[in-house]
Amino acid sequence: MSIKHAETDHPIHELATRRWSPYVFADRPVAREDLTALFEAARWAASSFNEQPWSYLVATREEPEEYERLLSCLVEPNQAWAKAAPVLALGVVTHRFKRNDKPNRVATHDLGLAAGNLLLEATARELLVHQMAGILPDRARELYSIPSGSEAWTGLAIGHAGDPESADGGLGDRDRAPRTRKPLREFVFSGRWGQAAGL
Question: Is this structure's pTM higher than 0.90?
């Protein structure tokens, strides 16, 4: 796996420092047991009232028609690079609690927690995942009969890192660029909004 280690300001777990989102994927399948493990990790994410308001639609290159169908649910700019990934998925969120049919205000948060588990499991298995907001939820609903109250929320491209030197259109430059993040003082506050916490 091509590794882009994060240059952290404070020590964190090595899995978090190795996780990144590539645009260039290798022409190499993902082993079935590894793919299953990613969704098993998502299964064990925390959620409000243990509701687990996430579902996934998955397609691999081994099933070309299914793969093309799922690929068509991404916006065209994302299709251009994601079509190289051996696995595509859609993260689907259910907006109401099954227990009482009330709105679940944190459903998308909980889908994010499931995604976080999936990403770390992928990293542990030398796989990479690129998540996307650029999807076509209405097309996904039509093609997959997603029920009312649930919605395709994110796309995922899953696979092994490719060679950035082989990429066209600036994608290789993106994969070679260093990882950057805002410093803690810009988003961890105490006392009042905008006042950096004394960590």
Answer: yes
